[in-house]
Design goal:
This protein is mostly helical. It has a domain at 242-397: Chondroitin AC/alginate lyase (Glycosyltransferase, Alpha/alpha barrel), CATH 1.50.10. The protein has 17 helices and 4 strands. Mean pLDDT is 93; it is low at 1-24.
């Protein structure tokens, strides 16, 4: 109680600073909540212990990012089938050599069991790392105002996406290839889902001299080209037609990228013509996700797919579409899917089958924190009382 009173006193004493923070223009964010971030920043500056602890951890992670040198797509020793190292390449993780064949080809599928060979191709990790580091550095800049963070974030973006010598070509033609079968598949496109962190990171860097207009223009150009590829290539169209989490994250990317480049008509059309029709396909009336529950890692895939739906609901809000409460006549929708998880998180029910490899609660708990305002009757606080160590921050999504 005393700590809380001191925090409130701090807020009163820093009135002008708090007013300045609220009066300052908020970054135009797509997935992150600018109001929640501003409130968190005010509490951090006032010395509130929970916020200060999490921001210090964030800054520590950003400092680690400062020490990492750029690792562009062209760093790989492998050469894609195109002969161009600027092209992204990865191997399907759940496919293994056929022991009955001398060269193991064509590979055979073992769903949920990752072939270590696939980790020898590091483009997926390179892309994930640059998205994570840029977002972390941008958040560190937002909370600290230190230009060192903004400068390194901008450098990482230029090296990975814009510089002619090192840039990634805006396509996933050679994603998740299967030795002996194909050089690339639609399923590789899910590996670029982390790109949705970039538009918000650029927004958080607004006001920094290290984020010149040319950088934003260049990044929008890259994302526009990649979105065109998603919408017109055979592989992109195939991914959009996939019914499970792959289709969900295809929509997430198209909608997010379209909004980033200013094509709100495309974003709105995608939600209405692609996303809404997925509801009766992916969700049962009780909120279960049969397509994901059928996998060898049900907890992992149900959580992951729900992450995509929550992101789509956040994006749809900007477009005037309420995906949070949309449902079919028999009750299929996101609200029921979120509530479906509650008895499992509370330990009242168990999955019919365990994941083939250990599963984590991190994704679903993070989502429960994010959906609290949309579903005030969800009882999320009871869930978090069972997992008190799970960090709840406005930038976790």
């Amino acid at each position: 109680m005393l700590r809380r009173l001191l925090w409130l006193l701090g807020l009163l004493l820093m009135g002008p600073l708090a007013h300045a923070a609220s009066a300052a223009p908020r970054p135009a964010l797509l997935l992150l909540d600018s109001a929640a971030l501003a409130t968190y920043k005010t509490a951090y500056r006032a010395g509130s212990a929970p916020e200060a602890t999490q921001v210090r951890q964030l800054l520590a992670e950003a400092n680690l990012g400062l020490a990492r040198v750029p690792d562009p797509i062209t760093s790989k020793p492998q050469t894609p089938p195109s002969g161009d190292k600027h092209d992204y390449i990865s191997q399907a993780p759940y496919w293994w050599p056929d022991p009955a064949k001398p060269d193991g080809k064509p590979y055979l599928q073992k769903d949920g069991l990752k072939n270590p060979e696939s980790t020898d191709m590091h483009d997926s990790q390179r892309l994930t790392n640059v998205c994570y580091d840029v977002q972390t550095l941008a958040l560190a800049y937002y909370f600290s105002g230190q230009e060192t963070y903004a400068a390194h974030a901008a450098k990482l973006l230029r090296v990975f996406f814009l510089d002619k010598a090192t840039r990634m070509n805006p396509n996933l033609t050679y994603g998740q290839g299967i030795p002996g079968t194909t050089d690339g598949r639609s399923y590789g496109i899910i590996e670029t889902r982390h790109l949705t962190a970039i538009p918000d990171a650029l927004a958080l860097l607004r006001g920094s001299p290290n984020r010149p207009a040319a950088l934003v223009v260049g990044m929008r150009g890259w994302f526009r080209q990649f979105t065109d590829w998603l919408l017109t290539s055979e592989i992109g169209l195939a991914e959009g037609a996939n019914k499970n989490n792959h289709g969900t994250f295809y929509d997430v990317q198209v909608v997010d990228f379209a909004m980033f480049v200013g094509d709100t008509a495309l974003a709105r059309r995608t939600v209405r013509t692609r996303t809404l029709p997925r509801v009766p396909v992916q969700f049962a009336p009780d909120g279960a996700q049969p397509l994901e529950l059928a996998r060898t890692r049900p907890w992992n895939y149900v959580s992951m797919n729900l992450e995509g739906w929550v992101k789509l609901a956040i994006l749809a809000q900007h477009l005037g579409i309420d995906l949070w409460h949309y449902h079919t006549p028999d009750g299929r929708g996101l609200a029921a899917a979120v509530a479906w998880f509650r008895p499992y998180l509370l330990g009242q029910q168990r999955m019919d089958k365990a994941d083939a490899v250990p599963a984590s609660n991190t994704t679903i708990l993070t989502l429960y924190h994010q959906v609290g305002r949309a579903y005030p009757n969800l009882g999320a606080q009871e869930v978090f009382s069972r997992y008190p160590q799970h960090p709840r921050t406005p930038w976790a999504l």
